[in-house]
Specification:
heterodimer; A: 109 residues; mainly beta; B: 115 residues; 0% helix
Chain lengths: 109, 115
């Protein structure tokens, strides 16, 4: 079973700050997703990574396959970025998605 | 938006009654999943399917069954609903990375209350 850990569990920051959320997993994967869930809302996939780095607007996601670690960065954070961010890994072979417990991000104006 | 819909979106049911939730996709993705989301536990896998009539249990499968008779539909049944099954249920679909896609998409969720 793939153990997926995220840190921090909760993060509060001021508008404009640079945000980093971390995800580590225990077993090799075929891909990793970063997901966003707004309060009471659905789940949206922000990125899917199998290597390297991806950027979309103010969001950057990186993955280090050897270290089994990924980070999600938000530059120039904004109150609308307030949400729960979830890391999910796609396991080799059975393609099961395993989720971290999420990071609740609050950006204060 | 990916073509994945859940029904119903909200349901209140009585303890002991059977309940079926439906997940429908138009993406022809191979993999379909049912998760429940509870405070303090995050998303936990109930069952998943890797093809028509091919299903497997997740970490919290007790009290649930699933069926997939067509690629596009994945049904989750609570055989005899209990209050501990009050939760928000999410359906997800994905395609394997060896087919060059590997995307994952989620339904809007079903809020189930068992009274």
């Amino acid at each position: 079973k793939n153990e997926v850990e995220q840190s921090p569990q909760n993060l509060t920051a001021q508008e404009g700050e640079f945000i980093t959320i971390n995800c580590s997993y225990s077993v090799g994967i075929s891909a990793l997703h970063w997901l966003q869930q707004h309060p009471g809302g659905g789940i949206v996939s922000l990125f899917m990574l199998s290597s390297g780095k991806k950027k979309h607007g103010r969001l950057i996601a990186t993955i280090n396959i050897q270290e089994k670690h990924s980070s999600l960065h938000i530059t120039a954070s904004h109150p609308r970025d307030s949400a729960v961010y979830i890391c999910a890994v796609l396991n080799f072979g059975n393609e099961k998605l395993t989720f971290g417990t999420g990071t609740r991000l609050t950006i204060i104006p | 938006d990916a073509g994945i819909t859940q029904s119903p979106r909200h349901k209140v049911t009585e303890t002991g009654t059977p309940v079926t939730l439906r997940c429908h996709q138009t993406e022809n993705h191979r993999y379909m999943y049912w998760y429940r989301q509870d405070p303090g536990h995050g998303l936990r896998l109930i069952h998943y399917s890797y093809g028509v009539k091919d299903t497997d249990k997740g970490e919290v499968s007790d009290g649930y069954s699933v069926s997939r008779s067509k690629t596009e539909d994945f049904l989750l049944t609570l055989e005899s609903a209990t209050s501990s099954q009050t939760s928000v249920y999410f359906c997800a679909i994905s395609e394997s990375t060896d087919r060059g896609r590997g995307g994952a998409f989620f339904g809007q969720g079903t809020r189930l209350t068992v009274v």
